[in-house]
Design a protein that fits this description.
single chain, 237 residues, alpha+beta, Alpha-D-Glucose-1,6-Bisphosphate, Chain A, domain 4, 6-stranded antiparallel sheet, 5-stranded antiparallel sheet, 11 strands, START-like_dom_sf, SRPBCC domain-containing protein
Length: 237
């Protein structure tokens, strides 16, 4: 019996060539991959440039020892992206983080879709929050009621920081929820909570806030408010 591999699939409203460039150009990758921190450029180089096997003509590439991206034309200017994880390596130390990498790809691929569909060519600003998962961030932020909504469903919610949140559900997965946020310049909020595993015995809680068009003062205020709330609500990692 063949072991089923972990996959992430999305259809992006952008042509195959545009999606391919967003996966191969470091400047474009910075506009969607993860969150901003001092080591982002090195992380992008490590994942998307070092030891990559690719076929630009067939629009596939393999990164990180075998994680495979395949792009196909979905018609009407759309692209189907399928990412298939490499199998477990047999290195018990590395394999202990296999599920963490799975969750990372879920986040990154939905960030890619969001950037290309809603903000092509635009720069962003991000806030990254993480901590132990003993307090799920959905519950801490009062977002439980949104967890069951289907992608595309409009929502309105009062954030724990006091600001109103409104937009649509961008994506749902087993452990993550993505919400567009009108008030962040049509931004994106990703909320994740993974259950306990041996390498994370208390689980992992995470939020990524992606904003557009904020002034320095507006972004600094948002960052300060959410960091202050997170420090009170979620134990530090």
């Amino acid at each position: 019996m063949t072991e089923e591999r972990f996959t992430v699939e999305v259809t992006i409203s952008a042509p195959v060539g545009e999606v391919w460039r967003a996966l191969r150009d470091p400047e474009q990758i910075r506009r969607w991959h993860g969150w901003h921190f001092d080591g982002l450029d090195k992380e992008i180089d490590f994942i998307y440039a070092e030891h990559v096997t690719e076929s630009p003509q067939e629009h596939w590439m393999e990164v990180q020892g075998g994680d495979r991206f395949e792009l196909t034309d979905a018609g009407e200017g759309r692209t189907h992206l399928r990412m298939t994880r490499a199998p477990l390596s047999g290195d018990t130390e590395w394999d202990a983080y296999y599920d963490d990498v799975n969750e990372g790809w879920v986040t990154f691929i939905h960030q890619l879709k969001f950037a290309l569909e809603r903000h092509p060519g635009a720069d962003r600003r991000t806030v990254f929050l993480s901590g132990h998962g003993t307090t799920p961030p959905l519950a801490a932020a009062g977002l439980d009621a949104l967890a069951g909504l289907a992608p595309g469903t409009p929502y309105e919610h009062a954030a724990p920081t006091g600001e109103p949140l409104a937009g649509t559900v961008w994506f749902r997965s087993d452990h993550q929820l993505g919400l567009t946020v009108d008030g962040w310049g049509d931004g994106l909020l990703v909320v994740a909570h993974t259950p306990p595993v041996p390498v994370h015995p208390e689980g992992v809680a995470m939020m990524i806030l992606t904003t557009y068009g904020r002034t320095n003062e507006e972004f600094a205020d948002l960052e300060a408010r959410w960091n202050a709330w997170w420090t009170r609500a979620v134990p530090a990692a």
